[in-house]
Amino acid sequence: MCGFAGFVTSGDQLYQNAQRLNILTKMSEQLSLRGPDDEQLFDSERLSIVFRRLSIIDVAGGKQPIWNKQQTIFVVCNGEIYNYKELRSQLDSKYDFCSHSDAEVVLHLYTECGIKALQQLNGMFALAIWDTQRQELVLARDRLGIKPLYYCQVGSQLIFGSTLTSLLVHPDAPNKPQWQDKTNLSASTSYVKGIKRLPGGHYLTCNLEQGTVDVNCYWELSNYFVTQSEQDHHSPQDYITEYRELFADSVKKQLMSDVPVGAFLSGGLDSSAIVAAASQYKKDLHCFTMVSDFSLEVGDVQIARDLCDYLNLPFHPVWFDPEKILENINFSLEKFEYFIWLVDAPVFYIELMLKHELHRYAKTLIPDLKVILLGQGSDEFAGGYSTPEDFPQSNWNSFSSNLTQSEQTLSQIKKPTSLKDGSYLFDFWGEESISLPSECTAFQREMSRRILMLQQYNLWHEDRSSSGQGIEARVPFLDHRLVEYLAAIPPSMQQTLFWDKKIIREMARQWLPDNLAYRKKSYGMEPLGWHRIKYKMLVAIFDKFQEKYQALSGFDNFQLIKSNLQPWFAEASVNDKQGIATTNKLLDAMVMMVFKNLCLNRCSSVSIGDFKERSPLQELHSFDCVS
User: Fold this and answer.
1) Where does 44-138 have alpha helices with state H?
2) What is the DSSP letter of 322?
3) Is the peptide bond preceding residue 65 cis, with omega within 30 degrees of 0?
């Protein structure tokens, strides 16, 4: 977990040296939580860039940017390259390495292969490569969009960074919110008009001599889909065995670290499989579990404790009381604003806040901990949303039919346009177009849609909630080899291997007892618990919010919302559906006003230091004492 930001110009330089350094300093401040261990600035007539580092690999020697021996090319990289040792062994005889950093491997691999180097990287990354001789900047993002990267073009300038806020502090960056992004989603939306996210699996090339900026795709999941007509000689067990081998290798690679590593263990299948597989290689893996009345009632906490006892791993059950969590963390309007700043968007998720607090507790308990393994990404590609609990009295065929009906009902796939190569062009979210083979199954289309959802929600909030505490979140299920492998399972095998996520359950039996491998899906907190937290949050901050934001200028188009704040507050409650709906509506309006103020003031209105203090949460080891 690191961060970088900068700007490059192909025309006349707009700023003097001192002005450029001042802009870089402001950008750096916005990235300080992502990279608390080191700050490096580079400034030239054409390119200015700052890199903030969270030191995980080669702690002493891995400072970035890393230059080649000739001082003609450098790289900065946010994230990790998990196969860097294998790649380095292929490059050692031809290049002089000055560090043991995984980022330096990217530098020399790019020198060797050019942009094709991206195809050889196994990891989660957002990177920038600057070639002084060609006067060319390359920005690239990992295949699945695990690590964030934003950019915008303003005249002859290209401004870029790991977070939206790192762009907003640049005086020339656009800062007008684009509210339709809240419903018209794609992998490139940023919620600010004129600023885009570089989609996963894409790279951007900015050539200063030619004055061009080009965005290209280097990876698409649909390239791995197979059709019903293709021959397959694998048995279901063959697929399970091969997937298990890839999964074990992914977990092993993602334990790569020169600092302590932990895991979030919910007691569910996915996180349990990761922890059990990781325990084969790492005996001091600290496991953190979110404990609530609900998770105790459904048995998640007991499962997590039993697994840690069985594997002889350190277990940390962290108590979250929905009635007291806001009081425990001293929730305030300033912290509400902080979370919206942190998430880089006009949205607020209770889950993000709770995950952030779990990361804060982990960091308080083990200050040197900088890596957490998460179970994200299993459901999306292995049939995790086809469980019998979700679709009782159903089967794979009816599940597939439901997917098709949902696509049509929600207009997430518009009428496909036929292409000359026999494929069809589908429009996801009304904005994002993806070319898919004409014989794609409903679940293959669902896989492509889920990539967008991961980038827009799951991976996004996991990155932000961990980065707020200087922790890197890793997702072993999203090793691109695993995702490609699942995509290549033929339609004839989908029912056998994907219904009720069977391929994951059978794979996990290598490490887990059957009762856990085939345990029903559960959720960490009951829905009413979420609503209670939202309402208590509203009550805690509404008066101060109204006092501050009613008086602010620049909100002319919010007059109708402003006039409704007090009536909505009077109607909000957790007692009925209407009260809950009004609570959500009011919080959403408040979030939008905070985000607009954040944009208008270019982030000067938010304090980012409030959550650096120790976590007030505590562990709960005597489960019997909770009713």
Assistant:
1) 84-91, 102-113
2) T
3) yes
* C-alpha closest to that of 511 among 262, 311, 226: 311
Task: Specify which residues 128 forms β-bridges with.
Answer: 76, 139
Residue with tokens 């039993």: 306
Report the C-alpha gap between 189 and 187 in whole angstroms: 6
Of 17 and 406, the structure prediction assigns the larger pLDDT to 17
Inter-axis angle of helices 577-600 and 333-343, to 10 degrees? Answer: 70
Q: Give the separation between CA 44 and CA 7, rounded to whole angstroms.
A: 11
> What's the pLDDT at 388?
66
323 versus 128: the higher-pLDDT residue is 128
Q: How far apart are CA 203 and CA 16, in angstroms?
A: 30
What token pair was written down for 610? 């409030």
Largest interatomic CA distance in the chain: 72
Q: DSSP secondary structure string, 170-192?
A: STTS---B-GGGGTS--TT--SB
The set of catalytic residues is 2
Residue 281 structure tokens: 């290689």
Any idea what DSSP says for residue 195?
-
Name, in order, each residue with C-beta under 8 angstroms of 257's C-beta and a sequence gap of 6 or more: 56, 57, 370, 371
Tens-place pLDDT, residues 526-537: 666 788 999 999
Tokens standing for residue 175: 């800062």
Helices (H), 134-289: 164-168, 236-254, 269-278
DSSP symbol at 619: B
Arithmetic mean of pLDDT over the chain? 89
Q: Quick one: tokens of 31?
A: 């990235």
Cβ atoms of 31 and 126 closer than 8 Å = no
Of the given ranges (25-29, 114-118, 241-245, 453-457), which has the lowest mean pLDDT?
453-457
The amino acid at 624 = D
pLDDT digits (tens, 9 = 90+) for 276-291: 999 999 999 999 999 9
